[in-house]
Amino acid sequence: MYLSKLFIPILKDTPSEAKVKSHQLMLRAGMIRQSSAGIYSWLPMGFKIMKKIEQIVREEQNKIGAQELLMPTIQSAEIWKESGRYDDYGEEMLRIKDRQGKEMLYGPTNEELITEIFRSSIKSYKSLPKLLYHIQWKFRDELRPRFGVMRCKEFFMKDAYSFDLNDDEAKKSYNKMFFAYLSTFKRLGLTAIPMAADTGPIGGDVSHEFIILAETGESKIYSDKRILNIDISKHGNENNSIEDLRKKYDEFYAVTDDKFDKKIFEKKVKKENQLITKGIEVGHIFYFGDKYSKPLNCSVDLQDGKKVDVKMGSYGIGVSRLVGAIIEAKFNNNIMKWPSSVAPYEVAIIPTLQKNDNTNYLRAEKIYKSLVKSNVDVLLDDTDEHLSAKFKKFDLIGIPFQIILGSKSTDDKHEFKELNGKTEILTLEEIKKILLNKRNTN
RNA sequence: CGGGCAGUAGCGCAGUCUGGUAGCGCAUCUGGUUUGGGACCAGAGGGUCGCAGGUUCAAAUCCUGCCUGCCCGACCA
User: Fold this and answer.
1) Which protein residue's Cα is closest to nucleotide B25 at C1'?
2) What is the ipTM of this complex?
3) Rounded Cα–Cα distance for residues A362 and A400 (Å)
4) For the domain A347-441, what is the CATH superfamily, name and number?
C-alpha cells in the first residue's frame, strides 16, 4: 500500500476528550472515530488491526475443536424471559421494540440464544461434547463508557459455549478453553494471568478472568509473581497435557479484588513474590452447569432413555478491547510498536527525497515491488514530507520495522530499523528472512 | 444515576467577567525553497460561536430551558 492512498486521518494534536494513552493514540493514528459516547467507527488502520486479532482468536478456537457460527445481534426477548434474565440483566440491556410492538433486544451476550439453537437440534448424548463460538458485536448500555474502546457500549467479542454430558467432561472443555486463551494471548504478544474471579450476571461457580498487567487497568489484582514465568509452549492441546498446565496455574495465588483475602494471600505468597497491581480484563471464562439448560429445557437422551440437562460453560474474549489493551501494555516513550502478529503492516519503506535526485525513491519502489511479490504486507511512504515528519508519523502508526532509504543506502544494502530498536545495514534478502521469521515467532 | 467541568474552523485553544458583528497555532489548498527527528517564505479557503427561546438598537458574550461530551463516584467483557 502507498501511504498517499491510505485513508488514515492522523491528528497532530490530541483530542481533549481522550484521557488514556490507548484512546489518545487510536484517535491520533486515525484508527477510530467516536460516533457517540461508547460507540465508535473503526477506520481502516484500526479495523485492520482488530481483524488480525480476530483471526488469531479464531485460529486458536479452531485448534481446540471449537466450531464457528454466527448469531444475530438483535434477539427476541422471549428466550430471555424463559431463562429469567430479562428482568435480572437490568438497565445494561438495550431493549428495542419492532413495528409490531414485539420486544427485542441488542444482545449483550448469547447464552440463551445458543442454548435455544442447541436444544432444538441436539437430542442424543452421542452428539456431545460440542464447542461452539461466534465473533460478533455486542451491546451493553454502560452507565459510563470510558477509555475509548476499552470500555464502550458496543464492542466486538468472541464468545464460545461448551455443551457436555457431566461435570467431568465439562471440566475438560473448560480446561481446553483455558489453554486456548493462554495460547491466544501469547500470540498477541501478551502475558495474560488467569485469575479466580467473580461470576457476575453470567452466573456459575467456576470462573477465571484473564488479565494483562497495565497501570491503566480497571481491575485490582493480587498474585504470585512466579505465575508469570509459566511456559505454556511445552504443552500440547491433548487433555492430559492441558490438565497439567491447569495444575501449574492453580498452584499460584492469583485473584481479583472481589475474591481477595488478605490472610490467605499473606499465608500462601511470600513477601518477595507478592504482586499487587492493576490489570485489564481481556477474557473471562465461566462454568455454570445447568443454569441455562435447565430453565430452557436443553437436555439430551442417555443410554437408558432418561434425559439429562446438558452442562454448559461460556467463554468470552473482548476482541475490540484487545486493540486498546495491547496499546496500554506495549506503549513506550511516545512510540506505539505493534507486535508483528497484529501490526497493521509488517514493514514500512521510508525514502528520503533529494532535490533533482530520485534514486532513493526508485530504490524504495523496487524494494516495495519485491516485498509485495513475497507476500509481505508493506507500506511505502510516497509522500514528500520531511523525513523527520515521516519518522514522527511512523512512531505513531507503530509498524514494527522500517526500511529507510537515505544516505546509508546503496543499490543492494539498505538501512533496516526495528521501531524503537536497533538499525542494521542489510540486503533485501536478509530483510525478507527476518520479516518472515518474525511472523511465526510473535 | 449523584457530584464536577466543558461545547467557538478538521484538531488544540483565545475571546465570555466588562455586549458593538470572530481570532491564533496546527492541518488543508496554490506557488516557490527545502528534506536524517513534527521545515521556511508568499498567498488562499474554511465557523448560522451545541440547540431553542428571551433581554437589548445590538448577543459567542447577559437570562431561561434543553442537548451533547469529558472527569470523579456507584456498576461491568
Assistant:
1) A13
2) 0.93
3) 23
4) Anticodon-binding domain (3.40.50.800)
Taking the C-alpha atoms of residue A173 and residue A155, their distance in angstroms, rounded to an integer, is 26
Provide the CATH topology of domain A7-330.
BirA Bifunctional Protein; domain 2 (3.30.930)
Quickly count: other Cβ atoms within 10 Å of residue A354's Cβ: 12
CA of A423 to C1' of B21 (A): 58
B14 C1' to A438 CA distance, Å:
49
- Please report, rounded to whole angstroms, the spatial distance between the CA atom of protein residue A19 and the C1' atom of nucleotide B6: 14
* Every domain of chain A and the residues it spans: 7-330, 347-441
The C-alpha atoms of residue A280 and residue A218 are separated, in whole angstroms, by: 6
Q: In A108-216, which ranges are E strands? A: 130-139, 154-164, 192-196, 206-213
Residue A404, nucleotide of least CA–C1' distance:
B36
Side-chain-facing half-sphere of A101: CA atoms under 13 Å:
0
Q: Could you tell me the CA-to-CA distances from A342 to A52, A249, A302, A338, A417 in Å, in that order?
A: 5, 27, 45, 7, 18
Distance A273 CA to B65 C1' (A): 59
Task: Kindly state the cell numbers that stand for A19.
Answer: 484521557
Nucleotide nearest residue A415, measured CA to C1': B36
Q: Phi, psi (5° rounding) for residue A29?
A: -85, 5
Nearest nucleotide (CA of A409 to C1'): B36
Nucleotides of B under 7 A from a protein CB: 1-2, 10-13, 25-27, 33-39, 68-77
pLDDT tens, chain A, 442 aa long: 999 999 999 999 999 999 899 999 999 999 999 999 999 999 999 999 999 999 999 999 999 999 999 999 999 999 999 999 998 888 899 999 998 999 999 999 999 999 999 999 999 999 999 999 999 999 999 988 989 999 999 999 999 999 999 999 999 999 999 999 999 999 999 999 999 877 666 666 689 999 999 878 888 889 999 999 999 988 888 888 999 999 899 899 998 888 888 889 999 999 999 999 889 999 999 999 999 999 999 999 999 999 999 999 999 999 999 999 999 999 887 889 999 999 999 999 999 988 888 999 999 999 999 999 999 999 999 999 999 999 999 999 999 999 999 988 898 999 999 999 999 999 999 999 999 999 877 5
Protein CA at A36 to nucleotide C1' at B61, angstroms: 29
Question: Environment class of residue A12 by beta-carbon count within 10 Å: exposed (0-12), middle (13-18) or buried (19+)?
Answer: exposed
> What distance in Å separates the CA atoms of residue A348 and residue A343, rounded to the nearest whole number?
11
